[in-house]
Structure formats: C-alpha cells, structure tokens
Amino acid sequence: MSETPWWLESGPETCQFCLRTFHYEAGYHCIYCDRPICPSCVAARFKSRDTVCPECHEEGNRVEEES
How many angstroms separate the CA atoms of 13 and 29, rounded? Predict the structure, then answer.
C-alpha cells in the first residue's frame, strides 16, 4: 500500500503567495517579513538555510539593480 507522506498532503497553513495549503513543519518563513512560505514559493535560499519570499526577493533585486 502506498500512502502519501504527511508533508505532501494539504495542511492548515495557507501560503500567501500561491494560496496552497501546507503543513507548518514543511514550510518556511521569510527572514525579512516573517510571512509563512510553502516550499514551492521559496524565492531564495542561502547557505545558512535562511529563506526569502517572492515579494521580498523582488524588492531586493530592485534595490540591487538601482545601485
């Protein structure tokens, strides 16, 4: 019998970017705005395992481009 792993099933958290539901334990939080992010929407991941949401990643890219 093949059961779906719990971390791939829908959960109680809702990603504010793609509106998918996910389990809190399988998600991330943006280091800048602290919003929850589903694993599919993580825009940047650093060696320190810090993650950035798509919105903050865009804002960061704009700042770098303007400099």
Answer: 12
The answer to whether 35 and 29 are in contact (CB under 8 A) is yes
- Write out the H or E segment, with its range, that includes residue 55: helix 54-66
pTM: 0.65
pLDDT tens for 11-38 read 888 888 888 888 877 778 899 998 888 8
Q: What residue segments make up the domains of the chain, in order of their start?
A: 6-66
CA distance readout (Å), 7 to 23, 38, 60: 6, 11, 30
Q: Which CATH number fits domain 6-66: 3.90.180.10, 3.40.50.620, 3.40.50.300, 3.30.40.10?
A: 3.30.40.10
Asked if 49 and 30 touch (Cβ cutoff 8 Å), the reply is no
List the structure tokens of 57: 């990643």
